[in-house]
Each structure stands twice: as C-alpha cells, then as structure tokens.
C-alpha cells in the first residue's frame, strides 16, 4: 500500500496467485515508481511464468499502483530475496539465497548460496553471481560504501570455497565489493594549442570493465584501455566526461571547462614556387603579415644548395639546386609557445633543349659552317640569332636558316655569338644556348729585304722579319734553288740572269689560315 505522510492510505493493492506470496523489499526510483520483490510459490494469478518451488517474484508499479511488469527469477528449487538496492539509474541489485543450480542460477557451491543479481528497469536480468560454501549461506542486506563499492551482509556455515573462516554453526558474513568509482582524470596538459592532442587517463579501480569518454570539442579520439587521446582543432574551453561501468552499474564523472585550447598562428609566405630549368633558380621568401609577437623558422628540404637568412623581415634567400624540393615556414607565438607551419612544394619545369652542334669555334675568314640543333621537343619553337661582339659592321653572311639549323659564311675576322632560343608554348619557359665564334686574322709574313738585285749564279740569305713561335713557315723560290732554310731565314743559289721570286708562307698553328708574302722582281746581274 501507499500512504500519505499522516498515515492515511493513498492506495493499496493485493497481488499474487493461489500460493504463498510474501513481499520482503521495496524501493522507489527517480520516476516515482515502486519496485517490490519477495518470495512466491504461486503458479497462477498475477504470477505469469514461475521458475521453481519458490521464486524471487518482482513487480514494478507506477505511482498510482498499476502493475507495469512482473517477473520471476530463480531456478527449479527455492530462492528468497532480503535486500534491493538501486545502485545506479535504471539498475537494481538484489540479494538473498538460492538452492538452485539451473534456470537463472548458473552455478552453486553447496546447499544454499548467497545469490546476488542485477536487473534493469525493463526487468531484463543483466548479471548474476553466487557466493558461499558447501553448506548453507545467504545474503540479507546490501549497502553502498563511500568509495561507491558495495557491502553485502549475510551468513555462512562452514569455511570452504568462498568462505575463508567460520567460528560456529552460522556466522555473520560480510563481503566488500569494488564499486565503480572514478576519482579523477589525469591529463597530459590542461592548456594546449590549436590542433594539439591531449592524453587522458581515468583514475578508476580494477573492477571497471568498460570506459566511455566524451571529449567536448575533440576530433579523431583514439581510446586504449583506461586512456584516450583527443585532438582539438578549434580554440575554446571544453569539458570532459568519463563513464565507467562494471557489474554493478555505471558512474559518470564530468569535469567542466577542463581543457583550454589556445589559438595557433596561421603562417604564410611569398616567393616563387615554379622555376624553368636552365634559368636562374634563386628567390627570396618572406612571411605574410609578419608579427613582432612571433618568431619564425625556415626549413629547406631536398635541396642540394644552400639557403641564406635574408633580413629584414625574417626572410630566406634560396638557390634551388634540385628539381624537387620543399620550403617550410614555422611560426611560433612567443607568449604561448603555440606554433604552426606551412610547407610549399618547389617545382622545376623542364625548358626546351637548345643544344646544337658544329665543327669549329675558331675559323678563318670566308669559312662556311653549319650549326645544327640536336633534339626536337614537342610544344616548342626555336629561332637563331647571330650577334657581333667587337665589330661595328657585320662580318658574316647567313646563307640558310630553319628551326633546325643555320649556315653562315664568316667573311671577316672578329668575335661573334651564335644563339639558339627555345620556348615552350605551354609553360612559356625559355632557354638560350650561346656559342662564341672567333674568326681569326690571316697571317702576314715579312721578308727582308723586300727587293733585291744580285749577280747571277750567286748565293744570298733572306730573312723572316717577324717570326712567331705559334706559326709554322715554308720558303719557296723561282729561278733558283734553296740551299738551306729555317723558320727565320733561307739561303738561295740563284740561276741565270733574269728575274726570280722568294716566297714565305706562314700558317697559324691553332687555325689553318695560311698567308704568304713574296719577295718579287729579284734582279740578277750577269756574272763577271
């Protein structure tokens, strides 16, 4: 029955069957409902599905006295209940004794054992466990300790199995169970930077069989054992909750505003990221919106060349030596130590190949030579250019030109450049190959004396007036014969009276440009 505070009956109800039905315990839940449990050997009436001789019959009433559900717990023999405890929301733990070894009772040690089991508010049997000796044992009461563990009181009859001592026929028997306490949470850090992680560990006892974490504001959390790692992508203040569960129920610990996430910088920098091969690959890089409240660090990866500090502005000057590299800027807020980085890829785009071949780079005047490109690259165009380095007037004549080759008559001495330009029509990369050409002056040998008169059949020595160690010389004569010659002089035996010529031919050793100067109109007098 349900009474008012002054003892007046609010409602009363008799339930059961034709047998013996005795209610022994009752508890009211947070919804105002009443869970009543006791012993019953009825097999009819309100008792719908009996289990054995005497069952633990449990009924849930609403606050008006209507039956919401009823259920029998036990085995084929006798069970009784003496205590009921709502240990956690929607869960009830009951204790008493059992003589059964079947049905809801999974095992037994003796004649009767302490039987403790837990049911949900929906009547479902969540778990059950027996304790005792080989004789008669039973449970009479359940309480919650300060550490949230359970204390069971009852009796035992002999010291064996679960019973460690007995002083007489029946002794008080008190069992302390580990509860589901979560006394706190350890964190690797309470104040972190954006996009950082925190390692949480629950401070709970070994009875916990399941832990569930609720990390407000965290992403990509990974749990292992009693710990969890959470990553916090946004700034703010966040709470954490940990739900621990064991056979007696669940417990929730919530800590408000435990994690403070500080802002991290958003670095960025300027500078060229794409270069054409064959062109200079050097540029300066600077932070965007540089802040005096931050420090900056540069990292250059996969680059064979050096990078150099570039002040002011905490910049970096880099000469890229490889075709694939990265540059990273790390910004750190000095006040908090929060940092972040940005990495950008450096790309080197291949430029057209402008190599070309030819025979000589040092020539004689009036020499014709062809210059030919060695490779053909798709999506590329080419053109030639000839430039004069030290002459005001051109010293060459282009005889023929195409994208693939050019033919030139080098007309007069001087220094020239042959250029082949290539341009990729897609990437716009341009390459230049330049070759320097030298057109040499022809040699001008000098004979001493320049003119001469001598009597016939006489000998005379003639000299090279300007010998050069880098040239070779050859003498020749008409109307006479060479008696002896060197590069510096020649001895000639003249023949009959008349005219004869002495010729000196000079050739540059490096370049085959022959030149000659002759001694002409040599007058011979008749021999006396």
What do these coordinates show?
- The chain has five domains: 2-177, Neuraminidase (6 Propeller); 182-262, Immunoglobulins (Immunoglobulin-like); 269-349, Sandwich (Immunoglobulin-like), CATH 2.60.40; 356-439, Immunoglobulin-like; 447-525, Immunoglobulin-like (Sandwich).
- It contains no helices and 45 strands.
- The chain is mainly β.
- The model is unreliable at 519-528 (pLDDT under 50).
- The strands form twelve sheets. Strands 3-4-5-6 form a four-stranded antiparallel beta sheet, with no helix packed on it. The protein has a four-stranded antiparallel beta sheet with strand order 7-8-9-10, with no helix packed on it.
- 0% of the residues lie in helices and 58% in strands.
- The protein starts with a strand and ends with a strand.
Summary keywords:
528 residues; mainly beta; Neuraminidase; Immunoglobulin-like; 5 domains; four-stranded antiparallel β-sheet; disordered C terminus
Distance between the termini: 179 Å
Cross-sheet strand order for the largest sheet: 3-4-5-6
Question: Cα-atom Rg, whole angstroms?
Answer: 56 Å
Enter the CATH topology name of the largest domain.
Neuraminidase
Briefly, what CATH class of the largest domain?
Mainly Beta
* Multimerization status: single chain
Shape: rod-shaped
The portion of residues assigned to helices is: under 10%
How are the SSEs placed, and which strands pair?
Elements (H helix, E strand, L loop, with lengths): L1 E2 L5 E3 L9 E8 L5 E7 L14 E7 L5 E7 L5 E10 L2 E8 L14 E8 L4 E7 L6 E7 L5 E7 L14 E7 L4 E6 L3 E3 L2 E9 L5 E6 L3 E6 L2 E6 L3 E11 L2 E14 L6 E2 L3 E3 L5 E6 L6 E8 L5 E4 L4 E5 L4 E10 L5 E11 L6 E2 L4 E2 L3 E7 L6 E9 L7 E6 L3 E6 L3 E11 L5 E10 L7 E2 L4 E3 L3 E6 L6 E8 L1 E6 L3 E6 L4 E10 L5 E12 L3
């Amino acid at each position: 029955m349900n009474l008012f505070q002054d003892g007046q009956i609010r409602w009363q109800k008799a339930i059961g069957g034709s047998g013996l039905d005795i209610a022994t315990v009752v508890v009211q839940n947070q919804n105002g409902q009443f869970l009543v449990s006791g012993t019953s050997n009825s097999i009819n009436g309100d008792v719908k599905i009996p289990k054995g001789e005497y069952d633990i019959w449990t009924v849930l009433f609403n606050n008006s006295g209507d039956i919401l559900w009823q259920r029998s717990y036990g085995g084929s023999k006798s069970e009784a209940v003496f205590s009921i405890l709502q240990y956690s929301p929607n869960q009830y733990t009951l204790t008493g004794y059992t003589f059964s070894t079947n049905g809801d009772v999974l095992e037994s040690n003796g004649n009767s054992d302490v039987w403790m089991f837990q049911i949900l508010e929906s009547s479902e049997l969540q778990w059950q466990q027996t304790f005792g000796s080989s004789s008669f044992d039973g449970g009479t009461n359940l309480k919650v300790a300060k550490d949230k563990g359970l204390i069971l009181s009852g009796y035992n009859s002999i010291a064996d199995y679960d019973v460690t001592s007995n002083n007489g026929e029946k002794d008080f028997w008190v069992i302390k169970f580990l509860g589901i306490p979560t006394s706190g949470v350890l964190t690797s850090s309470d104040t972190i930077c954006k996009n950082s992680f925190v390692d949480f560990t629950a401070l709970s006892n070994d009875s916990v069989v399941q832990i569930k974490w609720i990390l407000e504001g965290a992403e990509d959390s990974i749990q292992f054992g009693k710990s969890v790692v959470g990553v916090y992508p946004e700034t703010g203040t966040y709470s954490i909750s940990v739900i621990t569960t064991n056979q007696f129920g669940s417990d929730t610990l919530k800590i408000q505003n435990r994690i403070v996430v500080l802002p991290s910088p958003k670095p960025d920098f300027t500078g060229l990221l794409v270069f054409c091969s064959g062109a200079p690959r050097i540029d300066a890089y600077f932070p965007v919106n540089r802040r005096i409240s931050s420090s900056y660090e540069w990292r250059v990866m996969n680059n064979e060349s050096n990078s150099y500090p570039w002040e002011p502005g905490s910049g970096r000057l880099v000469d890229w030596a490889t075709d694939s590299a990265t540059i990273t800027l790390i910004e750190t807020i000095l006040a908090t130590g929060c940092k972040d980085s940005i990495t950008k890829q450096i790309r080197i785009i291949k430029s057209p190949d402008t190599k070309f071949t030819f025979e000589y780079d040092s020539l004689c005047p009036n020499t014709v030579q062809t210059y030919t490109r060695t490779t053909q690259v798709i999506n590329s165009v080419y053109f030639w250019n000839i430039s004069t380095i030290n002459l005001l007037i051109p010293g060459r004549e282009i005889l023929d030109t195409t994208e693939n080759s050019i033919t030139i008559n080098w007309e007069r001495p001087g220094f020239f450049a042959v250029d082949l330009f290539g341009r990729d029509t897609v990437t716009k990369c341009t390459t230049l190959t330049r070759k320097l050409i030298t057109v040499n002056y022809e040699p001008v040998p000098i004979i001493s004396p320049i003119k001469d008169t001598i009597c016939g059949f006489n000998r005379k020595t003639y000299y090279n007036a300007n010998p050069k160690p880098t040239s070779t010389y050859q003498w020749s004569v008409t109307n006479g014969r060479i008696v002896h010659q060197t590069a510096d002089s020649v001895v000639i035996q003249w023949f009959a009276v008349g005219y004869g010529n002495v010729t000196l031919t000079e050739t540059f050793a490096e370049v085959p440009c022959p030149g000659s100067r002759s001694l002409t109109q040599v007058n011979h007098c008749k021999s006396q």
